[in-house]
Design brief:
Radius of gyration: 12 Å
Strand content: under 5%
Order of helices and strands: HHHH
CATH topology: Non-ribosomal Peptide Synthetase Peptidyl Carrier Protein, Chain A
Distance between the termini: 18 Å
Largest sheet: none
Helix content: 40-55%
CATH architecture: Orthogonal Bundle
Structural class: mainly alpha
Number of helices: 4
CATH class: Mainly Alpha
Shape: globular
């Protein structure tokens, strides 16, 4: 599925964000440059101190899957009082 990047994490539904993560995780891109762009975008919008390390170096206490990444991002953002995903 084609990914359209958005300005902030709250512009994504959870499903759209999962699609972005899946495309990064499984390198479903047309070029290395596009993949790098998506990884950088991910790191910027999540605002998590570990950035793309959430994908490449997952915590041992969560599944090493795109769904695990989404769950960790959701939990961390909620703990920090940051906005979550768009409802829809």
């Amino acid at each position: 599925m084609r990914v359209t990047t958005k300005n902030s994490i709250s512009d994504y539904t959870e499903k759209e964000f999962l699609t972005l993560i899946e495309n990064i995780y499984f390198v479903n891109t047309e070029s290395e440059e596009e993949h790098r762009k998506w990884v950088n975008h991910f790191s910027e919008i999540i605002e998590h101190p570990r950035g793309n390390g959430l994908i490449y170096y997952p915590n041992k206490n969560r599944p090493d899957t795109p769904e695990g990444v989404v769950q960790e991002v959701k939990e961390w953002r909620a703990q920090q009082g940051k906005p979550g995903f768009k409802v829809g």
